[in-house]
Design a protein that fits this description.
Blueprint: H1 2-19, E1 20-25, E2 30-36, E3 41-46, E4 49-56, E5 59-68, E6 72-74, H2 78-87, E7 95-105, E8 112-121, E9 124-137, E10 140-150, E11 160-161, E12 166-167, E13 171-182
Antiparallel strand pairs: 1-4, 1-13, 2-3, 2-13, 3-6, 4-5, 5-7, 7-8, 8-9, 9-10, 10-13, 11-12
Length: 183
């Protein structure tokens, strides 16, 4: 009788644990930020990120992404990196984060979708809507797209150089090609 009772108590736990799947951000993921200045265009890359997806019954229920500001670097060297890190208020806010609020699939094969979420940059959190490609193959989710962001919306003063002669444009484009692998 004890065994039957124990089985009945544990059965829901087994089904719940099997129904939810966890995926972790893969090192194959790439996030770049493209911008411009009064002199030239530039690109920086996020070199340290982590994130997760919680999937239940083949639907994404939770999605997070965290980018370490200190590891956002350019090919132009330490001077540009220092200005970027300062503009992003790295000392007070060492992470840029995104958290899913809602996912809407646009077509039957789920290759296009809209992700609504909360984006926090330099301590300022805003609602954002991302139109992107979303695919699931085997044990991986692929999420690809881009989002234009106005720096001043996040209380970021566009960086300058050469005593104000070089000024970064207010708008940047964040490109993301994310791969979440089953944990």
């Amino acid at each position: 009788m004890k065994n039957i009772l124990l089985l009945l108590l544990l059965l829901p736990v087994v089904f719940i644990s099997q129904a939810q799947e966890k995926y972790s951000l893969s090192p194959k993921s790439v996030v770049t930020i493209n911008g411009s200045s009064t002199v030239s265009d530039w690109i920086v890359e996020a070199n340290a990120m982590k994130g997760t997806i919680q999937n239940k019954e083949n639907l994404i229920k939770e999605l997070t992404l965290e980018v370490t500001v200190e590891k956002i670097n350019s090919e132009r060297g330490a001077s540009m990196d220092k200005k970027l890190h300062s503009a992003l208020k790295m000392e007070e806010h060492p992470q840029v984060t995104f958290k899913l609020k809602e996912l809407t699939e646009k077509d039957a094969d789920a290759s296009k979708g809209t992700i609504k979420g909360l984006l926090t940059i330099a301590g300022v959190t805003k609602d954002v809507v991302l139109s992107c490609e979303i695919r699931k193959t085997g044990k991986e989710y692929f999420i690809k797209g881009n989002k234009e962001i106005n720096l001043t919306d996040y209380n970021i003063a566009p960086p300058t150089a050469m005593f104000g002669q070089i000024v970064v444009g207010e708008n940047v484009t964040v490109n993301f090609d994310l791969v979440y692998s089953k944990a």
